[in-house]
Amino acid sequence: MAVTLDRRHRGASRWVVLALVTLGALVMLVPFAFMLLNAFKSPGDYSSAGPLSWPSEFYLKGLTTYWNEVNFPLKLWNSAVIAGSVAVLGVVVSLLNAYALGIGRVRGRLWIVGLFLLANMLPQEALIYPLYYVAKEVGLYNTRLVVIIIFTVIQSAFGTYLLASVMSTFPRSLLEAAALDGAGKWTVLWRVVFPNLRPTLAVLLVFFFIWTWNEFLIPLVMLIDNSTQTIPVALASLQGDRLMDAPTTNAGALISLVPAVLFFLIFQRTLSRGITAGAEK
């Protein structure tokens, strides 16, 4: 009887948790519903009926206006190049740093890992002026390369901290067996460590891409030319000091959201496998 009651209690708790999670998901979808609703609304509808009304016509001019005014294909290319480069380079740098700290047993390893953790806590506002000054001095200002370098360092700080913690628990028996077989440190990294960390590295790759794709402040300061700007900066350019075309802004936000959502959906299975593998380990 006690076992049956316990099972019923756990079953009821699961339904309550599921209901709360579903409610939270619906609440999070509300802003996206408003964006979708106003993306196909004319400025006249928006001004007269407000943002909560149903559009009187299927208005597509906001989409075409945003596409043409900001040269969206070029902005999409810039964002893809920057985010993709940062994701790949950030994972490589994180792996090399963490290998030295987590397995190489560098002296003062805990202090170095602590510095990487501290670097993750620094706000970008505190970094923007020195980064701007250095970029101007070395001649990289207003280039995609400077943004790639900056975000590779920023993202790899988090990646190094995470991977160093994972590698510190790496089975020593595998490393010793590889050493007995005559494998050097480079061989151990790519033949032993890398295959075991591949799911975790895949998760980092997805996170680095999405985080960099959504970055705004540093690209806003570093990229002042239309030919180098990213999608978030282009979206912000639609807003003036006193006036804002809300339907066009919502249409631009909708178009800008599609690539990131597609990327996430394509790599969703990779992300799930990586998180599951990490939980099993």
UniProtKB/TrEMBL annotation:
- Write down the membrane topology: Multi-pass membrane protein
Where found in the cell?
Cell membrane
Q: Report the transmembrane regions from the record.
A: 15-37, 76-98, 110-133, 145-164, 201-224, 251-267
Q: Does the keyword Transmembrane apply?
A: yes
Pfam families according to UniProt: BPD_transp_1
Chief location of this protein within or outside the cell: membrane
Superkingdom to which the source organism belongs: Bacteria
Gene3D superfamilies assigned to the protein according to its UniProt record, in alphabetical order: MetI-like (1.10.3720.10)
Keyword set, alphabetical order: Cell membrane, Membrane, Transmembrane, Transmembrane helix, Transport
Domain (ABC transmembrane type-1): give its ranges.
Answer: 76-267
The UniProt entry's sequence similarity note says:
Belongs to the binding-protein-dependent transport system permease family.
Q: Which PANTHER family match?
A: ABC TRANSPORTER PERMEASE PROTEIN MG189-RELATED-RELATED, SN-GLYCEROL-3-PHOSPHATE TRANSPORT SYSTEM PERMEASE PROTEIN UGPE
Protein's name according to its UniProt entry: ABC transporter permease
Q: Name the species this protein comes from.
A: Asanoa iriomotensis
